[in-house]
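Hi W., the adenosine-5'-triphosphate complex you wanted:
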Amino acid sequence: MSEPYEFEQKHLDDVLEKIQDAKVANELERKNADKKRADVDDGWNDVRYRSSTYSGLFETAMSVRQQQQMLEQREAEMNSVEHQAQVLERLRERPYFARIDVQDDGTDGAEPIYIGLASFSDAPDHFLVYDWRAPISSIYYDEGVGDVTYTTPDGPQQATVHLKRQFQIEDDKVVTIFDTDEAVGDQMLLDALSGESTTKMQSIVTTIQREQNKIIRNTAADLLFVQGAAGSGKTSAVLQRVAYLLYRYRGQLTAGQVVMFSPNQLFNDYIDQVLPELGEQNMVQMTYYQYASRRLPRFNLETLQERFEGQPDTDQKHLINYKGSLDYFNLMQAYAKSLNQSGIQVRPIKFRGQEIISADKIKDIYYSFNENYNLGNRLFGTKERLLKMLQSQVRTEMKAEWVDEQIENLSKEEYDSLMGDEEKEFKSDEDEHNYVAKIIVTNEMRPLIKGINRNRFININRQFVHFLKSVPMRTQLADYQLTDAQWDEGVERTVAQMREGRLSLSDMTPFMLLFDLIKGAHGERDIRFLFIDEIQDYTPFQLAFLKYSFPKARFTMLGDLNQAIFTKENAVGLQADLQHLFNPEKSEYIELTDTYRSTQQITDFAKAILVDGATINAFEREGAKPVVKVTGSDAEMVDIAKERVEKNIADHETTAIITKTLAQAEAAYAHLRSEIDLTIIRTENQRLVPGTIIVPAYLAKGLEFDAVIMWDATEENYHDEDERQLVYTIASRAMHQLTILANHQLSPLLADIDESLYVKG
Ligand SMILES: Nc1ncnc2c1ncn2[C@@H]1O[C@H](COP(=O)(O)OP(=O)(O)OP(=O)(O)O)[C@@H](O)[C@H]1O
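Structure:
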């Protein structure tokens, strides 16, 4: 064994021994904590339940409270002991993955810093392992050997790095050592990338690249915008970023205050192991559809599939574009403001089928407040007045005939239960009658009160239509390539959809915003960080809405304008719009151009699909050229697919067959299922399973597979110029192998690609 190996093995043995000691100590602590908890549990037996007198009740409450406090304290101790046990277990498996020898300027000698998944010290301030997120660990990702500057809590520190070493440790043995003078050595990266794909995404802490590190550790920007080619590690960087933020703001930030909007549920499933692997809890993950559905429970919202497969004509595209614009967002704000003067749409309040407060009366109240009121205050003031009016209505109703009837019809049990347990004395029969009548009326009014509290008297559907109808008067539609007639047609479509309880994507966000504006909603102020993946599929309107809905959050947006499969050509304007939404001085734009997912051959091919795909650099990893095969029949396509999949299975590689639509996935599945063992992914709510899958393109976003078979890439399926991005998205899912099959005729989007970049099958 050579000298560094010997040294490092010995060091590893020492550290492992100390970890083992710490584990023993932890185990003892845990037993202690267990015992203390058992004592508390016993304590419950001493809690006396006395409820016959007030002081007895009070005493019981106090001792229960005391028990609870003790229990909470023990639980916290237990959790930290348990948390520590988990950390130690992880460290035991792999204590560290790198070492840097750093000499701070003005000090003697270099200190070796070992970097791992968590910190570990055997004495205060004596760190055997540094967490990868500690300030000093940043040197490992950012710098080579030589003079460096790193950030400490006291400001920048100059230092010299004498050694950078990377390790592979397996079963307590140092298997490989790489010494490198680059940031993160290519050899290590190559090793990390040469593995096979799994159904779960893995962490990348050992090989984070410099550009990615910038994304991970950024704490200054209100808007961090990452444009990155397919496979450039946007998702990876952002997940390690969440882990970093949870570490950096420990004690102030919880995983529940971090929200990630992801493209689909399958993707959530794919990434949900990364944070636990890093010893952190998962953030809140949801799709935009889920978010909107939660807020608009009465509507059926347009699904991912409907959105993707619906083919709007050009006029409709203009309409959709306009409805997604910032101009439209601003127009709605102006409309909302105008509601302070007039136009609020309300419904009368009815009780037992009778109108008791008319719509006009409600409007009068709404507009009785002076012009300094904003919409939120106006609504609040109206609610208060309405509730008061209901209260006085109770007195009137108590005398109504129906109340007498109800009282007469009460059984003895019902009557007693209305009276309650306690003995009551009434001065007269009339008093008793009134008492019961009041209860009956109040009960009957309860849903009304609830409705008022929930703003039901605002007719939000009608309000939305009122808004839509006002649009031609507020703007020059011609500026958006629309005529008034086209707009009116659009309004009619929306109204018809709303009647059926449906809302399209282009209407659902404006609808939510309008209601929020009327309510004067302040948004979810508890959320501190918001991540939006696949940003190119969001409209500026949606982003403005999210900013409004999460006013205290810092935003991280990631996307690839080349994969804009929904918004297509409009994605380009997005960046300009963001400058209106976020202070440009607090916005940072980072571009990732190096890609890691695919082999050089696949990346070169995918790049050629794009018209200007020049700024994408493949990490040098060799593989077979993509295969493009034009077949003579469906049967031939099935045969080739079968052959490929069988070979992949033999080579332990996972295959995804990607079709354009769900219907095509179903059709291909029907052909293939008797030939190959495969799973069809029909909805985003399915799980990703190991083995061969068949999936429509819009559900494959963000995922990756060893081998991809693009199914039926014919002219019929992919012909529009704006489908280029879709073809690129499909091709860029492949890590090692890409096969493109087309029955009879290849899509023109692929036909132009230089023949040297692929093999004709
Ligand atoms: N620094 C790295 N070290 C090792 N592997 C990496 C690194 N960066 C990215 N990868 C790997 O590259 C692959 C692609 O990464 P990721 O899915 O994060 O890219 P993406 O930019 O989100 O892609 P897309 O936009 O196509 O969905 C993953 O397998 C990831 O583990």
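The mean pLDDT is 88.

W.
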